[in-house]
Design a protein that fits this description.
The complex is a heterotrimer of chains A (332), B (291) and C (248). Chain A has 332 residues and is mainly α. Chain A contains 13 helices and four strands. Chain A has a domain of 220 residues. In chain C, strand 5 and strand 6 form a beta hairpin. The model of chain C has no long low-confidence stretch (mean pLDDT 91). The chains are: A mainly alpha (332), B mainly alpha (291), C alpha/beta (248). Chains A and B meet through helix 4, helix 10 and helix 12 of A and helix 4, helix 8 and helix 10 of B.
């Protein structure tokens, strides 16, 4: 019965996604694409943060690498197809992660967070200064966006068709989410959790902790790269601020904190909530820092487990209370 | 000395001055981290807040010295309030909690500063006595920068004395090593934490007022100088005051010579230096403490 | 054959000499207790042998191989297990998940990315078997940190044993237990370590005399004596060091 219900809700969800552009119009379709991109980005960070206990402040590096990788590939390689272009972005992220992995897997805790902040600063500065390559402050814009060629079936233009792009992005992002979900369900996913709980014991049980961290790091970076690449394609622009700026760095952390750090869906819920909060507060104040700051402070002080985490905790308490009440009743 | 040497020395002194300012900020950050394990991401924001408060004091009284005297303690009080009422509540969530909280406070301070004083950059006039230049060994050099170097060294000397010659200093040094043990010995650790936190912020506050006449007061101060100070701490090594000192000076010199010779790429030079150090020693040049 | 041997082992911490010329010999299949007053260097010896850190001087041999300076995970993979005096499990993971990790490592499944772990029946079965042997089947889905102290300790010991090591190093496995819990734990250890070599750090002499085939006494970083329980009981040097309070 449960299985039937679950299957039904998946189908309903798929149908809803399919008809979304035609139902809600272009503005909200674009909002949804942004939501989807940042969901994947946030979930990719949560693989490091929530699942492995590695706090990265500069995850934007991989987001940005994805964007620049794709943009540069499309700009310089004439005739490059769409999927390989996204691939170029993912590759850029992976290369960056491979370069950094040997350093970062040997540190943990605050050092890890700080190293990332430092490195993402490096990249931000490089993106600004290496004008010849990155276009500096203006970034790379108006690069060609090829149509999606499904050999033998169709060629879907992407450039000025928000609807086509929506479908393309959603499929790619949904696939990313599913892959990350599956990743957490593998035996390796258990090693992730073990490292988070007790890295020392994990070592004593025979697991190679630095190498395992490196694998998680690469996977997390790759998916951040996917989201960054799609973001660049979506706006047809990659710039230092848009790719590595503070907001991009903080957004996934906020999303994870609001939604709940201990679950897969938490960051996705958090992304949605934060978008709503942003939308609402932007009518009252321009000071986005104030909103972000207040959210950080309030959430960490009063609801550090996020919405999903707090809900789960409350449910467990209620359940425990009910078991106790039942026991008392039976005893009476 | 001849013209070219004079120019190099001048640049060097510029760098030294900036390095000293960085050190004032980084030192506080480092001691707070070493003792409490808390990386205060709002540290640079307090630095900036003090500059703004200094500007306000000067606007009201017209007296730079009053600003230098009053703004840092005022900022330190804000810092201690944050520590007492907010930071202590999130210890349960470990480092991540503290990072997020201080990050939040940093954003709030930024918003407050923009809201109260606007986004334009504001001037803070240095006192007339420090204007002008002084000539020595054939070099004509602005007095104010020498003042900054002197002020920083004086504070450093006082702090070193406090740390190594007083009972309180001994307690603090012990607490940096093992706060739990010191607590077990009956010493009021929360009070010690609060004091050290306050002094750390005070030092950053002094740096804020001191550098304001040169950099002017603007909302990007925290990010700009803060990032440099943070890089100093990371490169020098968490918890190592010596590392912070050495790297501050290197950075100051790199940034001023860098600007002269590489203009655009000076900042690349600095982050490049950091990247190289971290690649070889991920815990910083002198760092030993594992977070 | 000596399954474990240390030769000329020295270790110091910033000038403080903690181990001096320790030549430990553990025979294949025996249960060997390591005793001595606090600060004698027992845990340091454990740490050096199990790879927590490399010794300042000297060598460690395991199954005839020089493993000096090897990392804990490398030692685990060639058959050495270790438990901790202060319980060190995966707190928020269930008892089932805890044991399963050890089983996965035993089976060499450390980087597997392509299967769903919950669907691996063999693994599940083995994990359940272990849980059954330590009587934790009822609590299999409870978080490790939510277990009662005794059961948490049982999990702790079991983690060290679930990778099926040939040599298991137990650091005060009965730490903090009541009389009854200790009896139960001794029985558990005896059952679970059948056919294995055991080295245990112990303060409780009852435990030592009911489990150990041989005893090594460590005092101020040096081996004072090695021998059977009877020999040790009557050893004058040991008595002097302990002022005769080894009487049981």
């Amino acid at each position: 019965m449960r299985r039937a219900l679950a299957a039904l809700s998946w189908v309903a969800g798929a149908v809803a996604l399919a008809v979304l552009p035609t139902t809600v119009g272009p503005y909200y379709t674009n909002v949804f694409v942004t939501f989807a991109i940042f969901s994947v980005f946030s979930v990719s960070l949560n693989l490091l943060l929530g699942y492995t206990g590695l706090f990265s402040f500069g995850h934007a590096m991989f987001f940005g690498a994805g964007g620049y990788g794709t943009a540069l590939a499309l700009k310089h390689v004439s005739g490059l197809a769409l999927l390989p272009a996204v691939g170029a972005g993912v590759l850029a992220s992976l290369v960056l992660a491979l370069v950094l992995a040997p350093i970062v897997v040997r540190v943990s805790g605050t050092a890890f967070a700080m190293l990332h902040l430092a490195f993402s600063q490096v990249l931000y500065v490089l993106a600004l200064k290496l004008r010849a390559i990155t276009g500096g402050e203006d970034g790379i814009g108006n690069f060609p966006i090829p149509p999606l060629n499904i050999p033998g079936v169709a060629s879907l233009p992407m450039k000025d068709s928000p609807q086509n792009f929506y479908y393309f992005a959603i499929v790619l992002l949904a696939l990313s989410l599913w892959l990350m979900w599956f990743f957490t369900k593998t035996p390796f996913g258990q090693v992730q959790l073990a490292i988070r709980e007790n890295a020392k014991r994990t070592d004593y049980l025979g697991f190679k902790v630095p190498q395992s961290k490196a694998v998680i790091y690469l996977v997390s970076a790759a998916f951040a790269g996917v989201s960054g690449s799609l973001y660049g394609l979506f706006h047809n622009l990659v710039s230092a601020d848009g790719a590595f700026g503070a907001l991009v760095s903080f957004a996934p952390i906020i999303n994870i904190m609001i939604g709940g750090i201990g679950s897969f869906m938490g960051p996705i819920l958090g992304t949605a909530l934060f978008l709503v909060i942003e939308e609402v507060t932007s009518r009252f104040t321009e000071r986005v820092e104030l909103v972000i700051g207040l959210i950080f402070v309030f959430v960490i002080m009063f609801a550090p487990l996020g919405v999903l985490g707090t809900a789960k905790m409350l449910k467990q308490r209620w359940l425990a209370g009910r078991t106790a009440r039942d026991a008392v009743q039976r005893a009476a | 000395m001849d013209q070219t040497t004079a120019m190099y020395v001048a640049q060097g002194l510029h760098g030294l001055a900036y390095g000293m300012v960085l050190f004032l900020i980084a030192a506080g950050l480092n001691v707070i981290f070493g003792m409490m394990g808390v990386l205060n991401l709002a540290h640079a924001s307090f630095f900036m807040l003090s500059a703004y408060l200094g500007f306000q004091f000067v606007s009201i009284t017209g007296n730079f010295w009053l600003a230098l005297l009053l703004a840092p303690p005022a900022t330190a009080i804000c810092g201690v309030l944050m520590e007492r009422f907010l930071l202590t509540k999130v210890h349960a969530f470990g480092h991540m909690g503290e990072l997020i909280l201080t990050l939040g406070v940093a954003q709030i301070i930024l918003a407050a500063v923009k809201g109260i004083w606007g986004t334009e950059s504001l001037p803070l006039k240095m006192p007339p006595i420090l204007e002008g230049r002084v000539t020595f060994a054939g070099l004509d050099y602005p007095i104010y920068r020498l003042f900054i170097i002197g002020l920083a060294l004086a504070i450093l000397a006082v702090m070193t004395l406090l740390l190594y010659k007083t009972r309180l200093g001994k307690i603090v040094r012990a607490a940096v090593s093992d706060a739990g043990m010191v607590n077990a010995l009956g010493i009021n650790i929360p009070l010690v934490f609060m004091m050290v936190f306050g002094i750390g912020i005070w030092m950053a506050g002094v740096a804020g007022v001191a550098i304001a006449p040169i950099l002017t007061v603007f909302p990007g101060l925290a990010d700009q100088v803060g990032m440099d100070a943070f890089i100093v701490v990371v490169t020098g090594g968490f918890g190592s005051l010596l590392g912070a000192f050495v790297v501050s000076i290197i950075f100051g010199l790199l940034s001023s010579y860098g600007v002269q010779f590489f203009s655009q790429f000076a900042s690349v030079l600095i982050v490049g230096f950091m990247a190289i150090v971290l690649a070889i020693r991920p815990n910083g040049l002198f760092g030993a403490r594992d977070a | 054959m000596n399954i474990l041997e240390t030769r000329g082992l020295f270790h110091d911490f910033s000038g403080l000499q903690v181990l001096s010329d320790v030549n430990l010999q553990i025979r294949d299949g025996e249960r060997h207790a390591l005793i001595g007053p606090n600060g004698a260097g027992k845990t340091t010896l454990f740490n050096v042998v199990t790879g927590t850190y490399a010794p300042s001087r000297g060598q460690v041999f395991f199954k005839g191989r020089d493993v000096t300076g090897w990392a804990p995970n490398e030692l685990s993979r060639i058959g050495m297990g270790r438990s901790f005096q202060i319980t060190s499990t995966f707190g928020r993971l269930s008892a089932f998940q805890n044991i399963r990790l050890a089983i996965l490592s035993k089976r060499g499944i450390r980087f597997s990315l392509f299967r769903s772990v919950d669907k691996m029946r063999e693994i599940t079965r083995e994990t359940e078997a272990v849980l059954d042997r330590i009587n934790l089947t009822a609590e299999r889905d409870r978080a490790a940190s939510a277990l009662s102290y005794g059961k948490h300790r049982a999990l702790e010991i079991s983690l060290a044993l679930a990778t099926d090591p040939e040599l298991v190093m137990l650091d005060e496995f009965a730490a903090g237990m009541s009389r009854d819990e200790t009896h139960y734990a001794v029985d558990l250890v005896r059952r679970l370590t059948e056919g294995k070599t055991v080295v245990l750090i112990e303060h409780d002499m009852d435990v030592v005399f009911s489990l150990a085939d041989r005893i090594t006494v460590l005092h101020r970083g040096e081996i004072l004596a090695t021998g059977t329980p009877t020999e040790i009981r009557h050893n004058q040097a040991v008595k002097d060091a302990y002022l005769g309070d080894l009487e049981v």
